[in-house]
């Protein structure tokens, strides 16, 4: 859970800092890339191992 919260909040703060400094596009790229990386880590670490066959 800490990975999910830390990844989203951490990259959100980085986006805010870059946007406030005048680097809006860089902030958007950092947030988007960080969000995707966090989702990949969550998938790889938690969801990939689940058996979702339905029965």
Layout of secondary structure:
Layout: H1 2-20, H2 24-47
Helix pairs in contact: 1-2
Pfam family, one: DUF7996
InterPro entries: DUF7996
Transmembrane segments: 29-47
Task: Characterise this structure.
The structure is a single chain. The chain has 55 residues and is mostly helical. It has a domain at 10-42. Helices cover 78% and strands 0% of the residues. The protein contains two helices and no strands. α1 runs antiparallel to α2 (24-47). The protein is elongated. The two termini are 27 Å apart. The relative contact order is 0.16.
Count of helical stretches: 2
Give the DSSP E fraction (strand runs of 2 or more residues).
under 5%
The computed structural class is mainly alpha
Order of helices and strands: HH
> Tell me about the biggest sheet?
none
Cα gyration radius (Å): 15 Å
The residue-averaged pLDDT reads 89
Helix percent band? over 70%
- The tally of beta strands, per DSSP, is 0
Multimerization state: single chain
How far the N terminus sits from the C terminus, by CA atoms, comes to 27 Å
Molecular shape: elongated
Structure characteristics:
55 residues; mainly alpha; 2 helices
Write a brief caption for the model:
The chain crosses the membrane at residues 29-47. Helices cover 78% and strands 0% of the residues.
């Amino acid at each position: 859970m800490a990975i999910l919260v830390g990844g989203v909040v951490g990259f959100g703060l980085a986006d805010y800092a870059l946007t406030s400094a005048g680097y809006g596009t860089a902030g958007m790229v950092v947030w988007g890339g960080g969000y995707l990386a966090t989702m990949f880590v969550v998938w790889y670490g938690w969801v990939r191992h689940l058996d979702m066959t339905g029965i």
